[in-house]
């Protein structure tokens, strides 16, 4: 049975903090394209609003429904944003540091929207805090399966997934041989076959077991 995300954790944390920022990454395991971190904000008023119908971790939402759900999730959250780290940055600093950079950039968008991060707690999907090494000073709670169980993290997941998929569809037009419109940069058989036949592009993560392949674009 599919788990339905709730606001149990967010409501508990809102007894101690003015707002809960939820973050989730998309694209960590891809061979090409940037990694994205979505962020959403809920305050006490927002936590009383009804969770958008159909909200789930992005991996559990059919592709055809994600864009509509992302729009509704963004409208439901008090504020939202997406931060990015490029394939080149992933190669230069490693994936965990790149996730921290993307998170910090997502937080910048929230600050620009007027979110007071000093009085907020950040719920980060997973078991490792990659935000603090890049941007110390925040209160971060790493929560395993937050994108499955916590509505704020599920919303961040869907928002980031739709944004990153759009980037990969755009990149597909520049290098259609890799079929990124279908595989979104992940290691599908057709993607691996294209790398073997044509080499890698500047949008590939060359440190991810493809460092010996020639550069095509």
Any overview of this molecule?
- It is an enzyme of class 3 (hydrolase).
- This is Ribonuclease.
- Endonuclease that specifically degrades the RNA of RNA-DNA hybrids.
- It comes from Microbacterium sediminicola.
- Belongs to the RNase HII family.
- With 217 residues, the chain is α/β, with parallel strands linked by helices.
- The chain has a single domain, classed as Nucleotidyltransferase, domain 5.
- Helix content is 40%, strand content 16%.
- The chain contains eight helices and five strands.
- The protein has a five-stranded mixed beta sheet.
- Helix 2 crosses helix 6 and helix 3 crosses helix 4.
- The radius of gyration is 17 Å and the shape is globular.
Q: What topology emerges from the helices and strands here?
A:
Layout: H1 8-13, E1 19-26, E2 35-43, H2 63-76, E3 79-85, H3 87-93, H4 95-112, E4 120-125, E5 139-143, H5 146-149, H6 151-174, H7 180-183, H8 189-198
Parallel strand pairs: 1-4, 4-5
Antiparallel strand pairs: 1-2, 2-3
Helix pairs in contact: 2-6, 3-4
Subcellular location: Cytoplasm
Cofactor: Mg(2+); Mn(2+)
Main location: cytoplasm
